[in-house]
Structure formats: structure tokens, C-alpha cells
Design brief:
Nucleotidyltransferase, domain 5; five-stranded mixed sheet; Arc Repressor Mutant, subunit A; 3 domains; homodimer; globular; alpha/beta; DNA-binding
DNA sequence: CTTTGTTTGTCCAGTGGATGAACAAAGAAT
DNA sequence: ATTCTTTGTTCATCCACTGGACAAACAAAG
């Protein structure tokens, strides 16, 4: 099987040499766009705010701010709310970010569901739509996907910029060109999803791994710190890395495959060919492997977690102990992550959050006891609070960000 | 012992809140400095080069290039070599980077040695000086350090900018303010090395962890790819991370403590308190722990590696097998690193390179067999070829870079 | 109600840097 | 010897920011 994958991925070599990046030169345009972006960001982050306060906060000249604000008003990215409270002089004119100047679509494709949201430019959810399925082919899933996107597009209010982008998160490895190289749990291999979707809809499309999207979502809508590790634990384990404030994707886009990190060198062999992989001990796989001990040998793999949570809720001590063991092993992998990255925040997301009640304590105890002391100084370990929305919000935010990036570089 | 460390590090909390970064505004000065730097970098990377070629390559206007070149000549950062070969018209004037306009000092402080180099602005080594010692106090080491720096400064030819900076690499955890928080093998705790050195010499001082410095050295003087993991294996294991072309230091500067990554969850307990740490199996510690089996129980810890290498050289099968086992375990940790970071290059450095002959094959086999296939597509695994110079070159390059950074922001 | 001082936002001449075109110098090709 | 190329400088022009002047709007004090 591995050889097969290798062949698929080899085929996928694309000559990236063409991207010989032109050294960026600096001219009046650079400075104008830079300052315009600065003004826009100041308004986004500090509204309600007046022209005078922007000048004060950024250090820009009042005249400069005035002219940039005037252009932003023309472009409908901001609007004037009216006079604010005076502080002893002329009343300021309050400026606000016009978050409904455009809309973004975020799609989370799971193993047995598709979940889509429509957000405004600030990330507020305006509409959501989901459906579940079971073992569909790619073409069938594609139809479902189109159905959801169509529905979300239709529901979007009319706006200056319309749908600024579609972001799609998938449970698998994606490359920088928007191809899904491998999504084992969906049975996808080497699918050029970006092109397929872009051909149907007339807007930029971004394809991203589910854990990376989740990490970005947590960065955008969480506490906003700069070094965040998002650990997505479901049937497998994927990790999204926000380092120095940016998503780190790796040389080919395959970073964060920490489910296949060895934590038990002489342990059982994983389907990936390695021994003692973390996800054998700390993901749903650990539950699935013990399913028969709980009389669940006939259940669908996708249901076992829920069944076990039910049993634990009912006080089944064996189920609770199994969760405790899993929490302990989760801790082992998290220690590796913490010692490697010295992050400010580790966020655990995806389906395992359903078992938070039983895994959290053992996990925290393990980390607390065994991670290097100085790593724990400014460290937070949380379970995701965006619940099922993390991935969809993340990819939607990706698309919005991309829209502004294009705007900035114009 | 851990509690003790904790206290030390707790005390070290400094209010970083003051660093409320003023949003950077864009004005004519930004654009001028930006273009000037662009011209300088083009000359550094593509010399010999003429004004016309610079304009061509960068996209800048010929007039702009001319005026920037004129300033750079005034500042002595470049010089005119004379006329070059004509390609059918007027002969170009060849410009070259003036690498001897200043000098940088790089110091590598090891467990039982200090090694210092003097480099020009391009990183060419002009002078080196080293000495070894055994179990000295900090104050004694400090004196030795000053002695070496004094000697290097004296040996520097006179130049426009003189000594542009001193970089020091230490085997321990450093924070962003140049304090050595913890260097267990030197017995140092919470030492403000940067201030101490800066008070004696009138130039910027940079303190960096030895593995981070090594990573930077490999980036600067190696193939120059963007995602490099430098694995420094000596008595412990430290890792330096170059991600997206920049050093990643972590939230507090403690990234890369992968020596304490669990690879055997039920393994032996490490001095750090965790179980099954990588460095117990894949560093000199694995040798030291078996020293008595080879009749080396009386040897100094620092000499055991060399002794064992000698035995292996002489064909001692048991020693060779031990190295093979270590190579195999090195592979286990490298797999974790590769699956986590999807790097382009992994470089193994520090003392273990002495055993390359025996550890390399087992290591490569292990990685080849057990790392995810698609991670191996564009992956290189090398042993450092800068040998003992890696760390010193890295910190010297840090200092040079810092000089140019200050120059740019001026 | 009037006066005074403050705050907000606009306007405009001035400054600094990039640009394009013209130009001179120097050399190759025919 | 003539023509075409290439290189590097000069200069008028353009463009964005800056600082200061200014008017409008307002609060507070008398």
C-alpha cells in the first residue's frame, strides 16, 4: 500500500521552478498601499474610531489618514456611523469596518459529513448548512458539496464584493496548489479539488488540511497569541501549527503529521508502517481496537466514540478507565509537542472533545508532571471552544484573508 | 531539582509588556532604505555585477540604482573593481561587496572548551582561537572568554565599521534578552551573559542556544533552503529549527528541546523527570550508561565517545553494535521530526558526527522504512560538513545579520 | 450669552524619492 | 568610417507624505 501512495505522490511532482519570485521593489505605490492597509487594519481592530485617533494611534499624519479614509469609504470597506461623543472639542466622526461588504464560504468535509458556513468579512456566521452521508464516492460527495455551496451562495445578501472566496478543509494531505494528495478516510487520492471547484464558481478557492484550518480558526477567533498548536484528534491525529503568528505548512505542505510520531519504539505497528505511533494510543483508534471488549464489535467505526461516551456517562468504570488511559497517552504526545515548540497555547479539537470530561485530568497531570518545567511557564492547554465550527471558520477566514491579501498587493 | 529550576525561571519573569510595538508606518524613508537594501543584497548575492544588470535584475530604474550605488560606495559597503567585458557596447563598471568593511566575532562555548572565530561580513573565517578546560566556575570561564575575544579583536584588520558584533553560542536555554537561564552541563543558572559582555566591549552582543546557532549556520553556509532542522547530538540533544527561512525560537525561546521527546512511553526515567526521553537512547548518554560494559567506568564522561570511536575503529564488534543501536534510535526521533515538520533538510551535527561511519546506515534505513512515504520526497538527511565550525559560524552570522538589520532600519 | 481653549478634519505648499527620457561615453560589428 | 549597443548620468516630472494653517464644532468658565 505504501508503495502505491508513493507512486501517486511521485506523479504529482510539479515544476515549481517557474515561481522565480521577482524581487519586490519599493515605490510610491508600495507606501500608499501599506499605509492604506494600516489604516484599514486599525479601523478593523479598534473601531469605533475617529480619523484623529487613527492618526494618533498609527503615527500617520492627519492629512494622510484623511485621504486614505476617503478612499476606503469610496471602496465601501468602511462607513461613517455619525458623530461621536466630544471630549471637549469638535465631535469626531465615527468610522466602522463594513463587514458586510462581502461574504466568505467555509466548508468542512469530514469522514461522514459536510458542513458549510457563510460568514461576513469579520467572520460572523450568517448561515450554516450541513448534511451527513455514509461511504460515498468522490463524485457523489462532489455533488453534495456543490449543493451546499449553491445553497450558501443563494442565501448571501447582495454586497459590493459578493462572495470573496471559498475555503474547503479536508481530512488529509493537501499541497500548495490545492490538490488533495491523500485522504485515507475518504478514499481520495490525488484529486485536484481546487480546479474542480474553481471551474464551477467564479471566485478564489482555497483547499487546506483540516488541522491547519482549525489552527488558523483558533488563531483568528481565539486569544490571538502567536504560537499556537492545534491538535485535532479524531480517527487519526493531525496537528496545525501557528508559529510566529503564521501557519507553518512545511516544505511540501505536509507538516503536522504527528499522529505518526513514535511514542513507543517497540510498540505495535501502525497502518503507516511505523511502530508505536501516537494515534494508535491516543485517538479513536485506541477505542476502536478495544471495541469488542465492550460488545461493540458490530458497530460502525464512526459511532464507537459516541457509544463509549454514552457508557462512560452511565458510569461504566471500564469505559472511564479506557478514556483515562487515552488521556494519559494524549499527554505523552503533548509533552513532545510542548518540548519541541515551546508554544503559548495548545488547543485540542475535533471529535475527542466529546470525551473531555474523562481525558482532561489525566492529560493535564501527565503534562504537568513530565514536560520540562520551564516550558510550562506561559503555557495554556485548552479544549477547543469553537466546537464543530473550528475548521469551517478557519477556512472561511483563510478566504477572507486571501481577499485582503489580493487587495493589498493591488 | 526540578522545583529548584522552576524557581530560578519564575524569578526571571520580565515585563515584556513594554514592548508595545508601534505600528510601522510607511514613508519615503522606508522606500529608500528598502531599495538600498535590495541593491546591496543584489550585489552581495550576484557579484560581480554592473549597475545596469542590477537595474535589470531588480526592476528598479537605472537612475535609482545609480544613486543608491553612489551612497553605498560612500558608505564603503561596496567598491568598484574596474571595467568588465563589453557585450557589444560600453564596458560595464563591476561592483563588488566590500566584505572587509567590518568583522564579526563568533564564540562557541562547549562543556569543556571555548572556540572563537573572527569572520568578515561574508562569513569567511579570518582568525580562530580555542582552548579547553575542565570543570571551571563561571567566573573562570568568563576570564577565558574575555581572553579569546580580546585576542580576536586585536587580530582584526582595521576597517570602516570595525567589530560589528559578538555572538555567543551556549549549550543551554537562553531567553530573548540574552540571559542564559539554564546550562546544566556548565552548571550555569540565570546568568545575564549579554550584559556582562556588553559592558566590557562596545558592540552589540547576541547570546543564542548552540543548536539554534548551528541551524542558522547551516542555513547561511549550506544549501540555503528554507526549512531546515539541525539536530545537535552531544551529551544531550538539542534541535534548531529554521522554518520558512527564519529561526523559530518559540514563545519564550525554548523551542527545540527534543532531547526530551518521549520515544518509549514505558522507558527509563530521564534526569528531566520524564520517561523514555530520546536522548537517553540516541545521544552520548546511551554510551555513558554502558561505559562499564566496555571497561570505561573510570573515564571522564567527555572522553567516552572518543574512546568508543577508537574501539569501533579497531573493529570491536560490540562497540559497533552499540553505535548501530544508537543510529537506529536516532532514526526513531528523526522520524518524529520529519513527520512533524516536513522539512527539506535535516542536518545532524555536534559530537556524534564522530561516529557517522557506524550510525548513518542504521539511521537512514530506519527513516527510509518508517517515516511517512510522502515526507521523503524532497528530503535530505546529512551530517554537518562544517564540522566544529557550525555553531561559531552561526553566531558570527547572527551578529553580521544584526548589523545589517540595524543598518536597514536606520 | 460670550469668551476661551480644545478637538476634529481639510487644504495646501514643500520635501524627498522614483521614473522616464534624453544624452554622452565607450565599444562592437559591419 | 559608420552604425548600432550598452552603460551610466542628469534632469524635469510625478506622486505620496508632512507640517502648518485654517475653519468648524464644541465644552467649560465667567
Amino acid at each position: 500500500m505504501n508503495k502505491e501512495y508513493y507512486a501517486i505522490l511521485q506523479k504529482n511532482e510539479e515544476s515549481d521552478e517557474s515561481t522565480m519570485l521577482q524581487n519586490k521593489i519599493w515605490n510610491q505605490n508600495t507606501i500608499k498601499n501599506g499605509n492604506k492597509t494600516l489604516v484599514l487594519e486599525t479601523i478593523m481592530n479598534h473601531s469605533p474610531i475617529s480619523r484623529a485617533s487613527i492618526a494618533d494611534k498609527t503615527g500617520l499624519n492627519k492629512g494622510t489618514v484623511s485621504s486614505q479614509v476617503s478612499e476606503l469609504l469610496d471602496e465601501d470597506l468602511i462607513y461613517e456611523q455619525g458623530p461621536g461623543k466630544s471630549s471637549g472639542g469638535r465631535k469626531p466622526v465615527i468610522l466602522l469596518f463594513n463587514e458586510v461588504a462581502g461574504y466568505s464560504i467555509g466548508i468542512d468535509i469530514g469522514v461522514n459529513y459536510i458542513f458549510g458556513i457563510l460568514t461576513d468579512l469579520k467572520g460572523n456566521i450568517c448561515q450554516e448548512k450541513s448534511l451527513t452521508f455514509n461511504k460515498l464516492s468522490f463524485d457523489e460527495i462532489k455533488e453534495k458539496l456543490f449543493e451546499i455551496v449553491d445553497c450558501l451562495i443563494t442565501s448571501a445578501p447582495s454586497s459590493t464584493y459578493g462572495i470573496v472566496g471559498i475555503g474547503i478543509g479536508v481530512p488529509g494531505a493537501t499541497n500548495k496548489n490545492g490538490k488533495v494528495l491523500l485522504a485515507p478516510n475518504l478514499g481520495w487520492q490525488n484529486i485536484d479539488l481546487k480546479t474542480i471547484v474553481e471551474n464551477r464558481y467564479d471566485c478564489p478557492v482555497i483547499i487546506e488540511n483540516e488541522a491547519n484550518a482549525g489552527a488558523y480558526g483558533e488563531k483568528k477567533f481565539g486569544t490571538g497569541v502567536d504560537d499556537i498548536i492545534y491538535v485535532s484528534i479524531g480517527v487519526g491525529i493531525g496537528v496545525g501549527l501557528i508559529l510566529n503568528g503564521d501557519l507553518y505548512q512545511g516544505n511540501d505542505g505536509f507538516s503536522g503529521e504527528m499522529g505518526h510520531m513514535t511514542i513507543q519504539a517497540d510498540g505495535k505497528t501502525c497502518r503507516c508502517g511505523n511502530d508505536g505511533c501516537w494515534e494508535l494510543y491516543a485517538s479513536e483508534q485506541a477505542l476502536i481496537n478495544k471495541a469488542d471488549q465492550f460488545g461493540l464489535e458490530m458497530a460502525d467505526e464512526n459511532d464507537i466514540l459516541q457509544e463509549m461516551v454514552g457508557m462512560a456517562e452511565d458510569g461504566d468504570q471500564e469505559a472511564i478507565n479506557l478514556f483515562k488511559t487515552i488521556g494519559d497517552y494524549m499527554g505523552v504526545g503533548l509533552i513532545n509537542i510542548i518540548n519541541s515548540f515551546n508554544p503559548q497555547q495548545v488547543i485540542i479539537g475535533n471529535r475527542i472533545t466529546a470525551a473531555k470530561k474523562w481525558v482532561e485530568q489525566p492529560l493535564l497531570e501527565k503534562v504537568n508532571k513530565n514536560a520540562l518545567w520551564f516550558q510550562q511557564n506561559h503555557l495554556e492547554i485548552n479544549f477547543s471552544e469553537l466546537s464543530g465550527y473550528t475548521t469551517a471558520l478557519g477556512v472561511a477566514a483563510f478566504s477572507t484573508e486571501n481577499f485582503f491579501k489580493i487587495y493589498k498587493e493591488r
